[in-house]
Specification:
The protein has 368 residues and is an alpha/beta fold. It folds into two domains: 198 residues, Aldolase class I (TIM Barrel); 109 residues, no CATH class. It is built from 16 helices and ten strands. It has an eight-stranded parallel beta sheet with strand order 1-8-7-6-5-4-3-2. The protein has a two-stranded antiparallel sheet with strand order 9-10. Helix 7 links the parallel strand 6 and strand 7. The chain is globular. The structure holds flavin mononucleotide. Flavin mononucleotide (FMN) binds next to strand 3 and helix 9. The site of flavin mononucleotide (FMN) has 30 residues, from strand 3 and helix 9.
Length: 368
């Protein structure tokens, strides 16, 4: 399959893993790259020196191109992007911020830049800022999903943009890939599907719960980390969703050492950042830290009562926990099947038209 995305990134299949923070570690990136897709490392709020080490690990394990995702609003993100640029990572994927400076620096070594967007406005400005591609995440998506569904966002962006679009949100199988291509995308990025694999580092309890969950078992709210965000419906996030677990300044202060640890930030640095940024930003950071802490619980202990795990509506399309290599192989095979089915529909239509023409009848009566 050749698309603008396979050409742009020099990969075999137009398939990416989402650069999920604290999930898309080197093992996942290497597996996606070796299976012919574009592996994207999730820098999240990881400490910069760890990010540098991980980039070098990926490079040592594969000679295929790979990417790094950095949500610019998170602590450590700016430093992490600078490290990725110093290390000349082939593809930089930014979100939650402005990326023109990244484009400028990446150009100096031939690096490519993708912006993750969830609205028309963000996509248009990413193109204006020089991004080579956008990852467009529809309402169905895990994490910071917007209001507009993938089915509408992707074709609208295809009308508006000159750069290629990678569809995200709701894609978990070959039919999703073919659907996305039909809508005008040139590739897909999968989060939930890639999370629920052997290489996805969330605890088995959450993997099992996710596999048992149908498409309606996610929660979407801005109460989790201050931005509209979609997670798996489990008791921890459900309490926040229902307003039963609010943050207050006293609890924030009492938890501040734990929060610094969670953000992997020196306490004094976090404290001075907080003073500089003011109360609104502080509150946002605390909410973010609470979610990260719950995410660590989900990953390390599998505590279904108190942990949380990002998941999109596509969780209802995932029924097993295979390896990443199997996922990619399967998605490609299913896509071929879908193309075949569609070609079959077209053929039937052509046969019906020919029959109608020969008999001088209308196409509907010939088809009948
Ligand atoms: C566990 C998890 C963590 C995520 N973390 C990030 C992240 O750090 N940065 C980011 O841009 N998107 C993140 N996302 C969102 C994905 O990039 C993507 O938009 C989404 O997963 C697509 O929808 P899907 O899950 O239906 O494939 C995350 C998604 C999941 C499931």
């Amino acid at each position: 399959m050749k698309t603008a995305i396979t050409e742009l990134f020099d990969i075999q299949h137009p398939i990416l893993n989402a650069g999920m923070g604290r999930i898309a570690y080197p093992e996942m990136v290497i597996a996606v790259c070796n299976a012919g897709g574009l592996g994207v490392y999730g820098a999240g709020s990881n400490p910069p020196e760890r990010v540098r080490e991980d980039i070098r690990r990926i490079r040592a394990a594969t000679d295929r191109p790979f990417g790094i995702n950095a949500p610019l609003a998170l602590p450590n993100a700016m430093e992490n992007v600078k490290i990725a640029l110093e290390e000349e990572v082939p593809v930089i994927n930014y979100s939650m911020g402005r990326g023109d400076w990244i484009v400028k620096r990446a150009r100096t070594y031939g690096g490519k830049v993708m912006a993750s967007v969830n609205s028309v406005k963000l996509a248009v400005s990413a193109q204006k800022h020089g991004a080579d591609a956008v990852i467009a995440a529809g309402h169905e998506a895990a994490g910071h999903a917007g209001d507009i569904t993938t089915f509408v966002l992707v074709p609208r962006l295809a009308e508006l943009l000159d750069i290629p679009i990678i569809a995200a949100g709701g894609v978990a199988n070959g039919a999703g890939l073919v659907g996305a291509l039909a809508l005008g995308a040139e590739g897909v990025s999968m989060g939930t599907r890639m999370l629920l694999t052997n290489e996805g580092v969330v605890h088995d309890n959450f993997k099992q719960r996710a596999v048992e969950s149908d498409v309606d078992r996610t929660l979407y709210s801005n109460k989790f980390d201050g931005h509209m965000c979609r997670v798996l419906n489990t008791p921890g996030p459900e309490r926040i969703y229902n307003g039963k677990q609010s943050l207050n300044p006293v609890s924030i202060f009492l938890q501040s050492f734990g929060i610094a640890r969670e953000l992997e930030q020196p306490y004094l640095k976090m404290f001075s950042d907080v003073l500089r940024k003011g109360p609104k930003e502080t509150f946002a950071m605390m909410r973010m830290a609470r979610m990260l802490k719950m995410g660590t619980l989900a990953r390390d202990t599998g505590d279904l009562e108190h942990g949380q795990c990002g998941a999109g509506m596509s969780v209802g399309l995932v029924h097993d926990i295979p390896s990443i290599a199997e996922v990619i192989e399967r998605v490609v095979a299913e896509a071929e099947e879908s193309f075949g089915r569609l070609a079959g529909l077209m053929e039937r239509d052509v046969v019906a038209r020919e029959a109608a023409a020969a008999a001088g009848r209308s196409i509907s009566s010939a088809a009948a």
